[in-house]
Amino acid sequence: MKLSNSYFYTLRENVKDEDSTSGNLLARAGMIKKSSAGVYMIMPLGMKVLHKIETIIREEMDNTGAQELLMPSLILEEVYENSGRREAFGSNMFALKDRFQKNYVLGPTHEELFTMAAMMKGRSYKDFPYTLYQIQTKYRDETRPRFGLIRVREFIMKDSYSFDTDLDGLHVSYMKMFNAYKKIFDRMDLNYKIVKADTGAMGGLLSEEFQALCEIGEDVVVNCEHCDFSSNLEITEVIDQSVPSTEPYQDIELVATPNAKTIEEVAAFFGCQADQFVKTLIYRVDGKLYAFLLKGNRELNETKALKLLKANEIELANFEDVETVTKAKVGFAGPIGLSIPVIMDQEIVNMRNFITGANQSDHHLKNVNIKDFEVYKTADIASVKEGDICPVCGKPLVFTKGIEVGNTFKLGTKYAKSLGLEYLDADNKLQPVVMGSYGIGCERCMAAIVEQHNDEHGIIWPKSVAPFDLGIVVANIKDETQVKLAEKLYNQLKQQGYDVLLDDRKERPGVKFKDMELIGLPIRITVGKRSGEGIIEVRERTADENQEMSVEELYAYLKQA
Amino acid sequence: MKLSNSYFYTLRENVKDEDSTSGNLLARAGMIKKSSAGVYMIMPLGMKVLHKIETIIREEMDNTGAQELLMPSLILEEVYENSGRREAFGSNMFALKDRFQKNYVLGPTHEELFTMAAMMKGRSYKDFPYTLYQIQTKYRDETRPRFGLIRVREFIMKDSYSFDTDLDGLHVSYMKMFNAYKKIFDRMDLNYKIVKADTGAMGGLLSEEFQALCEIGEDVVVNCEHCDFSSNLEITEVIDQSVPSTEPYQDIELVATPNAKTIEEVAAFFGCQADQFVKTLIYRVDGKLYAFLLKGNRELNETKALKLLKANEIELANFEDVETVTKAKVGFAGPIGLSIPVIMDQEIVNMRNFITGANQSDHHLKNVNIKDFEVYKTADIASVKEGDICPVCGKPLVFTKGIEVGNTFKLGTKYAKSLGLEYLDADNKLQPVVMGSYGIGCERCMAAIVEQHNDEHGIIWPKSVAPFDLGIVVANIKDETQVKLAEKLYNQLKQQGYDVLLDDRKERPGVKFKDMELIGLPIRITVGKRSGEGIIEVRERTADENQEMSVEELYAYLKQA
Questions:
Q1: Which CATH class name applies to B253-379?
Q2: What are the coiled-coil residue ranges (chains A, B) (predicted)?
């Protein structure tokens, strides 16, 4: 592509409403442009990257034998009602009516339609297994779109769905996708971790996430310093290292603590550590109030809480609810005398004589023991902390942040059962089909790559997804020798199969170099003063210096590169 | 692709709710599946066709130097309000609110967003021309989706937009697209006509349509028997061949016509031809009532009427309105004494002593003349009929029906002006950008190809878009010699670059042959009884008989084919 004949622009300044490195760099490089909150135009240069990402995904999907199709986005609302997911998605789903007042939604994910597509009369076990996929636009009405392409409301996803007759078959189909995913993310040069993740309240047998590691990530990836354990914070088990306390039980004491409401204030008041304090958190879970007891230095893991209660929604109770339940100001909740179910973290079992709120404004209780209140359930409901020990090898855990670029999910028979997808087994009996689902966010990959591959000058695209393989800069467009050589190079390199950008604009060389760095092509070739001798300058995007070489040397160099 | 390992199905019976040949055949061939009214799933075999269609379009677009990008479908409603098109689209546009009650629509076409994308500060005339395109999903809330993929509510469109500094530039950009379109539709083997079409009430300089000719088409393509004149019925000029009547004026007579309401009945009553009668049609145009006068044998051309009145919407007035205006039952409207504007077709100018309704129930008037009533406008407002004469050469016109698969449009400065897209000219003055827009309906092409290429056995895909280049049928899957030869052929042909389907299912040969004909691959290779000798049977989709040949002969044959 020749820039002189093209639509091309870059922005010198940082983009004000972009709150991430990738969003800012992609916008500045003229690759994306915001259309409305969480909705982007993918501009021509970005489209080239997106195509390359899609091609990598499509090639690896086709290699597994998966077959591509295309589902609509406009889906009857009843389809999600039938599967029981309309409510689960709630206002995350865009809903609309057609001119006949019929209810539709914009598909956020397509388990339902694929299940329906797979329905064919008289399907026999011999027709399995198969895997279908699409590269298609999804819609989710995110509460807070952010981080450029990372959390958006309209985006392209590769989603695939496997169909098997039994769990062994599912495992084979799952592993094919799983291995294809590793190839895909490796080809994109992403630094990622594969972590076990939550299978959700709706059931499901196994969920794994591909987390691209970077600071901006919204997921916490828990790793072991020593072994290869890796898990999403949401589901990581806390290994209780405490031993039963042998302290003698002491009598409960009511203590006035007028200015101590936070854990820190209470600990300071009593002159003790946070972990000698038991905090009581009031939550509303699927509409019902619960109290959760945790050591003072722990946080509630909401995913674990939901799973324990087989619920869909959890949120901190509002002030009014807390004050009604505790009959006290917020900040003084405790387990004794509460009329709502109390759920206790496992780590409290070994404690004695701890401090809790008194359910009385400006008061706490000292020397509380488990025998003093009623417990509805005891379980591991806390989030792990850095330094907690690895559930596999016992060494300390460390945290990194990740962007979920892909996930793989053994669904089992959930959708087949709710929507009626069956096959005839060898005995001519109807059985539910066993499914898996697998997703990759295409724009999110693009953003994650930029988050991981950039410097102060701009983007550093991996070769596999760079918008062009290389860029030729004509230093002085008025110098005919330079222009001629550049054109010759451009045509010859294109013939050799390279995707080449030629910057033949009437701009100063400095502007062209800056643009080339910002848009992040792997190799820059400058056709400058020594053009008469057939000498050009070559510079890899990450190198500090140019290398002078002849055109012949360049061809050899590129073959090696 | 081997069918034994694939998701594959066909339907023996016609599909009940498909009202077109293409819809029925595509559904039966397992290429599409209806999801809801006017919304389809493109199934794997159909996806292969759609990809080939998209590839042809993409290649020809790229050849013109157009650059691909991708716009969102979710668009702020205000974007269309700003351009003045929100009202024009009306309920054809799907509208929705996000969780913050902000108004969005699903894009039916993207002039606005492309105009906005093209806005960059300080654009100079030197940055032009350029053309941008996308292959992207569109949404239109059609009143009556029908004919399979031909009139749907969600579909993929290639839309491109050209940006120039003046009309000469626009013409060059336009012709590039126009010529690319011819290549595209030629490559798809479509039989089409290019016709002049309406530029709409909103202005625009030139509109041409690419009409794939077939019976099911919703557009009427007007052709000349003699010259190459071709035009959409909507805008074809009626050449008035009448000469001024020299009959003496006679006195108006009120005639009781109790049982004559239709043109035929009135003509029979008076013993005259329909063209001696002038009919009066009451329409509501942008909310206001008008009377249109036409010869009894003519129909009103609504496009011409809209254009004449510079209006957006036209519909027949309801019975109540007609009765109020005419002070009579429906069926007796006439021009004399009407209080609404009367618009008269040009052909009436030369008439004398004609019959009209009397604006009195069960009565008509004889010997009416133009001098007897007031005319607001006289113009060509009638639709041409077959047999009318060609505006270019005077020979008779003939009609064919067409499906609009593409259109090209010189927009001019309409969007640039309404949305503020300007450039700095050589004198550093701001000027509006001159735009063109160009569309191709991808699924509609697929349907039009099937409408034109089928027989009683199924689809006959042109080579350029067939889901596979050829299909190999193993006659007897239990015969090891056959299976071995078929596998060998399959692998070798794939290595030679052919896209091959291998039917290795455990089915009777008759079933396999029928399926192969239904899905319409250009060439079928049967590996049967003479496999031991290395002899196979070859049959083109349109041939009546097999040709026996050796494998070597096959390779030579395919190279020629």
A1: alpha beta
A2: none
3-state secondary structure of A89: helix
Q: How far is B360 from chain A (nearest CA, A)?
A: 39
Gap from A542 CA to chain B (nearest CA, Å): 28
Q: Which helix (H) or strand (E) holds B104?
A: strand B103-106
How would residue A198 be classed by pLDDT, with cut points 50, 70 and 90? confident
Tally the C-alpha atoms within 13 A of residue B102's C-alpha that lie toward its C-beta: 14
CB B446 within 8 A of CB B49: yes
The residue among B9, B98, B507 with the most chain A CBs within 10 A of its CB, best to mutate, is: B98
pTM confidence score: 0.92
pLDDT exceeds cutoff 70 at B202 = no
**Predicted pLDDT of residue A313:** 85
Closest Cα to residue B95, out of B87, B379, B164, A144? Answer: B87
Q: Residue B251's pLDDT is what?
A: 95
Q: How many residues does chain B have?
A: 561
Q: What is the mean pLDDT of chain B?
A: 94
The reply to whether residue A75 touches residue B35, judged by beta carbons under 8 angstroms, is: yes
pLDDT in tens, B90-122: 899 999 999 999 999 999 999 999 999 988 766
Chain A partners within 8 Å of B95 (Cβ):
96
- The mean pLDDT value for A79-96 works out to 92
For the domain A17-236+399-450, what is the CATH superfamily, name and number?
Bira Bifunctional Protein; Domain 2 (3.30.930.10)
The 8-class DSSP code of residue A4 comes to G
CATH 3.40.50.11750 fits B470-560, yes or no: no
Domains in chain A: boundaries: 17-236+399-450, 253-379, 470-560
List of chain B residues whose C-beta atoms are within 8 Å of the C-beta of residue A104:
36
Which one of B9, B91, B96 has the shortest CB-CB distance to A99? B91
Residues A103 and A76: their CA atoms lie apart, in Å, by: 6
**Integer Cα distance of A140 and A91 in angstroms:** 9
B253-379 and B470-560 in the same fold: no
* Contacts B501 to A, Cβ<8 Å: none
Once rounded to an integer, what is the mean pLDDT over residues A432-448? 97
CA angle, B137 then B140 then B141, to 5°: 140
Q: How confident is the model at residue A266 (pLDDT cuts 50, 70, 90)?
A: confident
- Best residue in B35, B114, B172 for a mutation probing chain A (most A CBs within 10 Å): B35
**Nearest-angstrom CA–CA distance, B462 and B450:** 9
Mean pLDDT, residues B294-303: 94
Best interface-test mutation with B: which of A36, A164, A504 has the largest number of B CBs within 10 A?
Answer: A36
